């Protein structure tokens, strides 16, 4: 008999929907776009030919509909890998757990998970307004280190990074996992690609000092100069690493593509980017 997952470990809404996302299995498409900003859900679903599902719980909004014959869900995650831990776990549960019996289904359902976000470049040659795809998600947030991952993590790349930066042992130990090769080729074949670092915050963890001083003021410079086997670090944001780590661990297909709105090396910032973001969203929708 299949093992039943306790209610305390997999909470549900009173109508049987998954707790945080408030979704039933039939309300989720196999093709999923993840966005941090809840307002971006409607911006993307407005491009759909039709929308048949609109659900919300807290900052987590889901619209599911049709775009040029393809069924797609767009879901807001909020900011940070801690939110991604919730969203990815619950998306997998909706896809692969019988919520009525709280048991794992015999047949695995794989989701295509594409994050569309904004990001800051760590390379002076990447212009604001560019689209960048993450060939690897490199986490300095620690989320994936709480899970059993087998040989999923690229420990060789992590070790090289730790040596290069002189990584402090009091910080979360980094991890690194790849994008889906198929989605990277299909959706991002004409975009610059590289390693994306995901930080556990926007200010101090990304080297921004406002009033509180930085303990590691040289860390960003060391991160910027890291290059592994000819692959540079292109940008830094707050979600990619957990999407890649948990997506791969759970048998899904993850990809992150970002609009660069700041360059941390040159100090430039793109303060108006609605048109460029819509262009990126249309590109992903057309190639999904």
Question: What topology, given as strand order, has the largest sheet?
Answer: 7-12-10-8-13
The profile of the biggest β sheet is: 5 strands, mixed, barrel
State which percent range the strand residues make up. 25-35%
Count of extended strands: 14
N to C succession of SSEs: EHEEEHEEEEHEHEHEEHEEH
CATH fold topology = Rossmann fold
| Average of the residue pLDDT scores | 96
How far is the N terminus from the C terminus? Answer: 38 Å
CATH class: Alpha Beta
Low-confidence stretches: none
Number of domains: 1
Per CATH, the architecture is 3-Layer(aba) Sandwich
Shape: globular
Q: Could you give me the name of the CATH homologous superfamily?
A: Nucleoside phosphorylase domain
Q: Given the helix and strand composition, which structural class is it?
A: alpha/beta
- What's the tally of helices? 7
Q: What is the C-alpha radius of gyration, as a whole number of Å?
A: 19 Å
Helix content: 10-25%
């Amino acid at each position: 008999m299949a093992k039943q997952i306790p209610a305390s470990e997999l909470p549900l809404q009173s109508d049987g929907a998954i707790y945080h996302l408030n979704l039933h299995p039939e309300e989720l498409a196999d093709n999923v776009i993840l966005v941090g900003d809840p307002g971006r859900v409607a911006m993307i679903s407005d491009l759909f030919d039709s929308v048949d599902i609109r659900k919300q719980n807290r900052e987590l909004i889901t619209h599911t509909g049709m775009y040029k014959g393809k069924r797609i869900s767009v879901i807001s995650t909020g900011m940070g890998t801690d939110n991604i831990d919730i969203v990815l776990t619950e998306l997998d549960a909706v896809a692969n757990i019988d919520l009525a019996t709280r048991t794992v289904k015999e047949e695995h359902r794989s989701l295509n998970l594409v994050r569309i976000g904004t990001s800051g470049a760590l390379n002076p040659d990447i212009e604001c307004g560019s689209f960048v795809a993450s060939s690897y998600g490199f986490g300095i947030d620690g989320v994936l280190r709480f899970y059993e991952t087998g040989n999923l993590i690229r420990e060789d790349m992590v070790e090289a990074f730790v040596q290069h930066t002189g990584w402090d042992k009091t910080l979360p130990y980094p991890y690194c996992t790849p994008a889906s090769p198929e989605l990277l080729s299909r959706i991002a074949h004409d975009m610059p690609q590289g390693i994306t670092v995901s930080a556990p915050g926007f200010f101090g963890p990304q080297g921004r000092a406002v009033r509180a001083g930085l303990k590691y003021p040289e860390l960003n410079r060391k991160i910027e100069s890291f290059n592994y086997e000819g692959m540079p670090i292109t940008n830094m944001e707050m979600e990619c690493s957990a999407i890649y780590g948990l997506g791969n661990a759970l048998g899904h297909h993850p990809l992150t593509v970002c609009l660069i709105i700041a360059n941390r090396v040159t100090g430039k910032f793109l303060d108006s980017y609605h048109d460029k973001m819509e262009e990126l969203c249309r590109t992903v929708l057309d190639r999904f």
